Amino acid sequence: MIASADASRALADPLPLVAKKTEGLERRDGLLPLYLDRQRGRVWLELPAESAATGVIGRYLYIEGITTGMGSNPVGLDRGQLGATQVVAFRRVGGRVVIEASNERFRALTGNAAEAQAIRQSFASSVLWGGEIAAQDGDGRGLIDLTSFLVRDAHGISQTLRAAGQGSYALDEARSALDLTECFSFPGNLEFEALLTYAGNDPGPEMRATLAAPGALSLVQHHSLIRLPDDRYWPRTFDPRSSSYAVSFFDYGAPIASELGTKWIVRHRLEKVDASAPRSRVEEPIVYYVDPATPEPIRSALIEGASWWAKAFDAAGFIDAFRVELLPPDAHPLDMRYNVIQWVQRATRGWSYGGGVIDPRTGEMLKGHVSLDSLRIRQDRLLFEGLVGTDKTGTGSPDDPVQIALSRIRQLSAHEVGHTLGLAHNFAASTWGQGFRDGLPCPPGRHHRTRRARPFERLRRGRGGVGPPVDPFRVFPVRPERRRTQTTRSHPSRGDLG
User: Fold this and answer.
1) Which of 195, 198, 196, 173 is nearest to 182 (CA)?
2) How far is CA 185 from CA 29, 32, 82, 336, 427, in A?
3) Alpha helices in 421-441 (DSSP H)
4) For residues 496 and 366, is the Cβ–Cβ distance under 8 A?
5) Rounded distance, CA 137 to CA 139, Å?
6) Distance of CA 464 to CAs 56, 438, 439, 494, Å?
7) Which residues, including other chains, have CB under 8 Å from residue 197's CB and lie 6 or more apart?
8) pTM of the model
9) Are 182 and 172 in contact (CB under 8 A)?
10) Residue 261 is inside which H or E element, if any?
């Protein structure tokens, strides 16, 4: 009876007002108001009132990643690594708020709200987190403690280590904490970071080789919560001849004679000021930023190589639509607002790759992110020395292996940025000769009797010393569409489609 009376009193006690609960805390306005409790190391998030019909408070894009890496290529936990982008809804259920990821793999692109609802009920969503409402105002605004959502193994570090045979590691909450100095609220995005420490026994060889203390792996995890893009962007249907890659899903609203499987290409949004003009300036150019941690002369080579894409956009009719700059010193590489070419160090040479933050509803590339391996240029120099010797290393001559390695990394920069622009590997273009098609041409062979040690004419600064030629492979994917895709019978970003 005593327990029942206490429970009744708890239910009867009203929640405090938001202003009362956050009194004395640091407020940061933006996409959603944040309140930082520096004394207790917690962050509170203020939410608007929920929909009376669905309980949904708001829908956003969510992505997590790791700011710092382990330094092991075989394990693959790299500095600046991003996870998959998800569409999430903050939804009130009773006295709690859940963060629920929608299932974008199954849709019904029709104007029939009931059909779209049937799809959502047929294929499960995933609740990523839930927390109690700590304060509420009369207009429905509420307050939640978001700390436990941010201090969790969102990137799947434990599973990655286990799959790589590096031991059984689990998040140690006593050695993990939210970093309030890296929590920001901007008009279009929220950014958070947390220090996470994973403790384990019987560490694998990569743990012993790269960690300061093999029994403890400490990484910084990054979270971004992003405003949903508007519906001015229209998807473009994937065509295997376009050398693009795509987002894929099943459209149960497709006509009977059509395939359920649907693919839309990945690309940046780029809109002309004068849409009817063959050539026009753009409303907002695409800007990529090179990591200032990149040393010279590699930094300048990366800027030059990535800048070659400006020629393709210009040939497609977009004037001054693409440029490459150095990342400002106060900018975070994982901040949603910056397309970044990041310099990544590992204990051994590994892959470079280009990806980013992609709206899974439409295929729109919202943030291009390139990870370039720092050891590749050194290995390239060794390979070239193996072909032509070391006599000219460091001389600055055309056949200097250092200069050839710099030419190679210019092409690698353009290659990986091409992936972030939505282009896949174009193996079919190998029939077009040694031009810059897929990005990384092999040195052309020479007759064994001539013994000429100049196999790198096509590698030097592209072809002709000024970068690769502008060919249809690079122009076609970036040119504006002539018509809207017929598969988008209803715009995929509208609320009735989930």
Assistant:
1) 195
2) 6, 7, 20, 12, 43
3) none
4) no
5) 5
6) 58, 18, 15, 48
7) 171, 172, 175, 176, 216, 217, 218
8) 0.89
9) no
10) strand 261-265
User: Of 272, 294, 243, 298, nearest to 418 (Cα)?
Assistant: 243
How many Cα atoms are found within 13 Å in the side-chain-facing hemisphere of 304?
19
Task: Round to whole Å and give the CA distance between 214 and 205.
Answer: 9
* Nearest to 405, CA basis, from 436, 387, 383, 388: 383
Residue 441: cis peptide before it, omega within 30 degrees of 0: no
Backbone angles phi, psi at 117, to 5 degrees: -65, -40
Residue 497: both structure tokens together: 């489609």
Distances (CA, A) of 384 to 398, 405, 456: 12, 8, 9
Nearest by Cα to 175 from 153, 199, 193, 202: 199
Within 8 A by CB and 6+ apart from 473, the residues are 243, 426, 429, 437
Helices (H), 293-336: 298-307, 309-315
Phi, psi values for residue 200, rounded to 5°: -160, 165
Per-residue pLDDT of the chain (498 residues; tens, 9 = 90+): 445 555 554 555 799 999 999 999 999 999 999 999 999 999 999 999 999 999 999 999 999 999 999 999 999 999 999 999 999 999 999 999 999 999 999 999 988 999 999 999 999 999 999 999 999 999 999 999 999 999 999 999 999 999 999 999 999 999 999 999 999 999 999 999 999 999 998 899 999 999 999 999 999 999 999 999 999 999 999 988 778 889 999 999 999 999 999 999 999 999 999 999 999 999 999 999 999 999 999 999 999 999 999 999 999 999 999 999 999 999 999 999 999 999 999 999 888 999 999 999 999 999 999 999 999 999 999 999 998 899 999 999 988 999 999 999 999 999 999 999 999 887 665 565 554 445 554 455 444 444 444 555 555 544 434 455 555 556 656 666 544 444 445 566 554 333
CB-based contact 469:309 (threshold 8 Å):
no
d(CA 426, CA 439): 9
CA dihedral defined by 467, 472, 475, 480, rounded to 10 degrees?
170
Q: Residues with Cβ < 8 Å from 236, sequence gap 6 or more?
A: 264, 265, 267, 363, 481, 485
Token pair for 169: 């590691």
| Cα 493 from Cα 60, distance rounded (Å) | 11
